[in-house]
Amino acid sequence: APVIYNKPLNGAQDSCAHRCGELLGTCSCQATCQSLRICCQDYKEFCLQISPYSGSLMGGKDFLIENTALNTSSVLTCRFKQKITTLGYVAKDGKGHCISPLLYETGFIPFDVSTDGGLTFPYTGTWLSVHHSKTSDGEKCTLVNETKWQYYGTPNTDGNLTLTWMHQALAATSINIEVWGYQETGDSYSENWLAEWKYLYTLAREIPNTGKFSFTPVPTEGNYRTWDFGMLRIIPSSYSDGQSNIPSIWSSEHALAWHLGKDFRKDPNAWAAAKCIEWDRKEEMLPNFMEEITDCPCTLAQARADTGRFHTDYGCDIEKGSVCTYHPGAVHCVRAIQASPQYAAGQQCCYDSTGTQILTRDSTGGSTPDRGHDWGSPPFMKPPRIPGFSHWLYDVISFYYCCLWSDNCHLYMKRRPSSDCRTYRPPRAASAFGDPHFFTFDGLNFTFKGQGEYTLVESDLTFLRVQGRTQQAHFPNGTVAEVTGLSAVAMQENNSDVIEVRYSEVLNLEVLLNHKVISFSEQSWIDLKGLFLHSTPDQKITVMFSSGSGVEVRGTRGFLTLTVLVPEKFMNHTQGLFGVMNGLTEDDYTFKNKTIMSVDASPQQLFEFGANWAVENGTSLFTYDTEFLLNSFFYGKKHNASFLPVFSPNEDPADPLVKEMVLLCDSDPFCRFDVLTTRSLQVGNSTKLSHQNHKRLVENLEPDMSVLLVISCGWLDHPANGRKNGTNYLLGSTISFICSQGYELTGSKERMCQVTGAWSGDMPSC
Fold this sequence. Notes:
With 766 residues, the chain is an alpha+beta fold. The protein folds into four domains: 48-130, Sandwich (Immunoglobulin-like); 137-266; 268-416, no CATH class; 428-653, no CATH class. It contains 13 helices and 37 strands. The strands form eight sheets. Strands 23-22-21-34-33-32-31-30 form an eight-stranded antiparallel beta sheet, with helices on one face. It has a six-stranded antiparallel beta sheet with strand order 24-25-26-27-28-29, with no helix packed on it. A five-stranded mixed beta sheet has the order 2-9-8-4-5, with no helix packed on it. Strand 24 (452-458) and strand 25 (465-474) form a beta hairpin. The termini are far apart. Keywords: Disulfide bond, Membrane, Sushi, Transmembrane, Transmembrane helix.
């Protein structure tokens, strides 16, 4: 809950040593203390700001402690999660540095620092651990022509390999290049299943740190031959082989074809085929994860609209030119955001240029689900939940065995068949935009221009809460208008982190994590507690909660535009300004005490309905970090009853703005309303665009409103000794069948997907 801040008393002050994030008796060690000017005097000394603030979970990154000057003779010890220690150092300028450790998880990791050799750790901060493939290319060393490294030793692939890196990243004149391998040991899906990155051997020793190294790989001898997935690590030569948590540059994770033994070089096809068959046998013994992963969206439009549950697969992205190497024929793929509950498996869905789902049973370009979700899943730390690497071990290196290094792709596709969309149900969307117009989950729309903080949606199903703050709009000349707009949105589900997005004149959007402003300057995707957070280059913020609910926020013309998506399981489990989601509009104006107001209510009555959903201080998720916010929304009333907005603006034909408004808005009532109340065509235009976007989103999710679902009849096989025409299995599609020469067809020549979800006619045979 928000805190009522006491101004510090004169006299002795508390210290922030060991107390960052706390509100103390005389002063504050919370992030909000700076803008409120109530920090303890030593806040900046003990509550650390670092740069860079993020790096790969593989560790080895040197980061600077910006705000604290230390004694140059101090011995720094950096400790992560209270248990993993790395050595730090103090540079000549008195600034401290830490080295990030190897972690088997992503997200914000607490760390503390000791200057007395590890006796006490009074300085604290957080480090952002990032999925290895989501770190920037400049942070890794580059395998020049990576395909050559991963196919080395297969037909027509030999010669020299080259590695390049940013030599400035390591303060050393000579370096060593090491080979590391990844393995998971113990029994699958048991307590003793463990993940390990292991130093194997040093590939090159004491070579000059020029940023480039070329070599001709020789087949590996002995036990190392069994390691086929790993990375290279570059370290200063002054450290010992395989020493952990030291300054390093890692390569990308890759298939270690180039280092495999003579048996692979002699006959790569036979070697890989044997590995593929062995993998297939192992898969036979493992539990079937396919039964618990979610089905795919039926259409490309649905897949791109369902942003709470599916996210672009960067290996096949329509916005980046559809370079779909592993999925020929696809224009776009998405991945399910959440891993499946028990086995932490992942889903992938690919679509062709007509927007139809591609299935592996029809084409090698089809989507393949994953035994290990590529992004890992909380609580991480153990297989199958290790970000990136569990997935490589079960789903990627096996693809090399079966599909890339040998011709046994049928075995891979048998174990990783595409899911169709028969059980997919689209989410429902609600939106708020302009000087605020609301669209409920059931499609009712209304305008409510209260000033205050309100519950937009809350649910007893997952304790999802989304709250909105409205502030008065301004005319183009700077004076205050008698209408309001969304200025901040705060949200939480169960005991997840709290996210707040607010409009900022300077930044457009400002995002707060647990009441502290966060930056997307290094990472656009952040794994958090109970949610994922993503920011696009054009500043659209998406919050993806573990229930599959999604919240999207954009900044437009001084206000926020908000969309909330919730899955079907929230039916009859929502209340607030976005209404009771049940497919009926007549109960959308339900008050907190469950009384219902008619859908034909007047603007004045709607004002009462909105006011009823004002939040209370005890349940507010907002941050009050300025005097203005404290006085306006914390000490003041949550709903400002003395503010009465314009309920229906007057269209005066003599008003020169009316003519331009008609040209811009046409018949859009929200656009007209906002032009008249704010006297701004720009505001009207952004309202019109937001309204169009909401309508398009709803249409994409529910393509045919007469049939509430996209109906799929499921995959149809071709008859033995015949073929089929068509790979679309959705409502109204027709599949026809033809027999090979010399065979006669019995059964149906054509079958059509019906409203019941069943195919017409009978299965043909030849």
